[in-house]
Design brief:
It comes from Helopsaltes ochotensis. It is built from 1 helix and 11 strands, in the order βββββαββββββ.
């Protein structure tokens, strides 16, 4: 019930050089659970923004009244990685020892914001639901921790896909929940949901 909403939420997007450089933003209105209406869109060219500083942008909505006020910062990505199973970042014993030393009890208060990090190996899925008429699916896996999101590549025409990827997330809140969702890629249409599991960090 507001024409001037304030969200004050922060989202972290991991920008890799092989991805597109445009940030697409959509504003939606909900009447009820079933009805949604698009109130406008805007786009930000990430490559045009100065790095290592917070950019305050007022973005007019295209073909609709209103604007968005956003703070966007482009900074070097630390603590986040995607790698193949054969080059797992924690596979080196020397690196494991350095990390153990970094997070030992006597160093706990050296950097309050450095809580730790989570490493997830996404190996494979088994007996997925068939989402296509051919009796197959084109599955990919999305990992979300807080407002961080990373995803695997798509394995086409397969109900037992193997991804063999290693994902590393910095932990910002020990009470966060890791959500792992499997989708079926559906061309230009929104992906189909194939399943989900939620893992509280405190249970690891």
């Amino acid at each position: 019930k507001s024409a001037n909403p304030q969200w004050r939420e922060q989202f972290d997007f991991h920008y890799f050089s092989d991805r597109k450089d445009i940030l697409d933003i959509q504003v939606w209105r909900k009447d009820n659970k079933k009805h949604e209406e698009l109130l406008g869109t805007c786009h930000v060219d990430i490559t045009a923004l100065p790095t290592k500083q917070t950019n305050c942008l007022e973005l007019p909505l295209e073909k609709h009244p209103g604007s968005l006020l956003m703070l966007i910062a482009v900074a070097p990505c630390t603590g986040v990685s995607i790698s193949d199973l054969c080059v797992c970042p924690l596979g080196d014993p020397n690196e494991r020892q350095q990390i153990s030393q970094r997070y030992c009890i006597k160093n706990s208060f050296r950097d309050i914001k450095d809580i730790g990090f989570l490493q997830v190996k996404v190996l494979k899925a088994v007996d997925l639901m068939a989402a296509d008429f051919s009796g197959k699916s084109d599955p990919f896996c999305v990992l979300e921790l807080g407002n961080d999101m990373l995803q695997t590549h798509t394995v086409y025409k397969n109900l037992n896909p193997e991804w063999n990827k290693v994902f590393t997330f910095p932990i910002k809140d020990i009470h966060d929940v890791l959500e792992v969702t499997v989708f079926d890629e559906d061309g230009d249409k929104p992906p189909d949901f194939l399943g989900k599991v939620a893992i509280p960090l405190l249970s690891v």
